[in-house]
Specification:
The chain has one domain: PPM-type phosphatase domain (Phosphatase 2c, domain 1). The protein is globular and about 50 Å long. It is an alpha+beta fold. A hairpin with a 4-residue loop joins strand 2 and strand 3. Helix content is about 35%, strand content about 25%. Bound molecules: magnesium ion. The site of magnesium ion has 6 residues, from helix 5. Magnesium ion binds next to helix 5.
Length: about 290
């Protein structure tokens, strides 16, 4: 069965930070979706996430599989941090997924952004955080509940761009009709518990509205960090040729709009609520 995806995404500065160091990428043409959460002094965090997403996209479009594309993104951030003293030490998380039209998903993952799969009413975390508290959980020194409140919960043990090379977790999943995938930064998961995330995803059918509502929930809970959410619905249906061409022209004009809004050229969704934020992809191919 051919599958298509309906994607809704939102990013928000939150209630406390003075700029947004998160970023995300939704590339309709090649079937690539990613979330990145940058860190570093000066403008380092936002440069790191934007640099990683753009390098990932370029490498993937050129034919690199997801693991190599994440390596290329690591190199791009690392080289820039060495070249510019103001950006020294910057890094970013990166959780990136590539999809084909049969629903095969390959995730490349570094850091503590997350991917979740909602299937048959259950929400399952499919990535493992590269974080201090996750290591303490694995060692039996913290319970997951304690970790949620631990002041060290934002300390990560692996990030893109800090070293000349990085170990990338690769996770493969076969998605099916009715699945919903969530990619998010820790600004969501440190503010909103997994049970609440699961409930909201279960009750809100529209991907774009679900993304907005998750961001709203994180802000309502305090919004202490930047919040980024991408919701991907997997729908098993063949597209008609008319809707396929319509979808492509629509996504092109929106890409131009986004590029104009963002000097870094990273494809962020438009903030204007009047714009439909659900994307439809048909017949995704690498
Ligand atoms: Mg964060």
């Amino acid at each position: 069965m051919r599958l298509h995806l309906q994607v809704g995404a939102a990013t928000d500065i939150g209630q406390v930070r003075d700029h947004n160091e998160d970023g995300y990428l939704v590339d309709h043409d090649v079937g690539l979706i990613a979330v990145a959460d940058g860190m570093g002094g000066h403008r380092g965090g936002e440069v790191a996430s934007a640099t990683a997403l753009e390098a990932l996209r370029v490498a993937f479009v050129a034919g690199a599989p997801i693991d190599e594309a994440v390596d290329v993104a690591n190199d791009a951030v690392h080289e820039q941090s060495i070249a510019d003293p103001k950006l020294r030490g910057m890094g970013t998380t990166l959780t990136a997924g590539s999809f084909d039209d049969e629903g095969h998903l390959v995730l490349g993952h570094v850091g503590d952004s997350r991917a979740y799969l909602a299937r048959d009413g259950e929400l399952e975390r499919v990535t493992t955080d590269h974080s201090l508290v996750e290591e303490l959980i694995q060692a039996g020194e913290l319970t997951p509940d304690e970790a949620e409140r631990d002041p060290r919960r934002s300390m990560i043990t692996r990030a893109l761009g800090l070293e000349p090379s990085v170990v990338v977790d690769i996770i493969e999943l076969d998605l099916r009709d009715g699945d919903r995938l969530l990619l998010c930064s820790d600004g969501l998961t440190t503010m909103v518990g997994e049970d609440d995330i699961a409930s909201l995803l279960a009750e809100e059918p529209d991907a774009a509205t679900a993304a907005d509502r998750l961001v709203d929930a994180a802000n309502a809970a305090g919004g202490v960090d930047n919040i980024t959410v991408v919701v991907i619905d997997v729908v098993g249906d063949a597209a008609s040729p008319e809707s396929e061409s319509e979808s492509e022209s629509e996504s092109e004009s929106e890409s131009d709009e986004r590029a104009a809004e963002r000097p870094d050229g990273v494809a962020h969704e438009p903030a204007d609520d009047a714009e439909p934020r659900t994307r439809r992809w048909f017949g995704l191919r690498r």
